[in-house]
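thread from #wetlab-drylab

HS: before we spend reagent money on co-crystallization trials with FE2/S2 (inorganic) cluster, can we at least see a predicted complex? here's what I'd submit
DV: go for it
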Amino acid sequence: MYTDKVMDHFTNPRNVGEIEDANGVGEVGNASCGDIMKIFLKVEDNIIKDVKFKTFGCGAAIATSSMVTEMAIGKTIEEALELSNQAVAEALDGLPAQKMHCSNLAADALHEAIKNYREQNG
Ligand code: FES
């Protein structure tokens, strides 16, 4: 039911944890299941240098969290804002239809963290 990429990121998630001196933090909850994703950013010179995440959620949520961190690192904040939930799901070679709602968290949490960064660093 899951692609190899989803299984890979679920069983071996990248960038799990917190960034102590994060300068942007975003948290979103999935209204349909109650799962929560939190993303920490370290931005320097408008570039996302580091991203870490903590996700209390299903396997698909963890895989999309892991993938979105990999996609965001090295991007400018403008480029990272363009990352969509759909793009994250596609990078995982898709998710089962009944799990697409799980991918709603990933890019949203990243965008929230960028918003928070901008508020702090106006
Ligand atoms: Fe909640 Fe997947 S079931 S994010």
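DV: Strands lie at 24-29, 36-44, 47-56.
HS: ok that's useful, forwarding to the group
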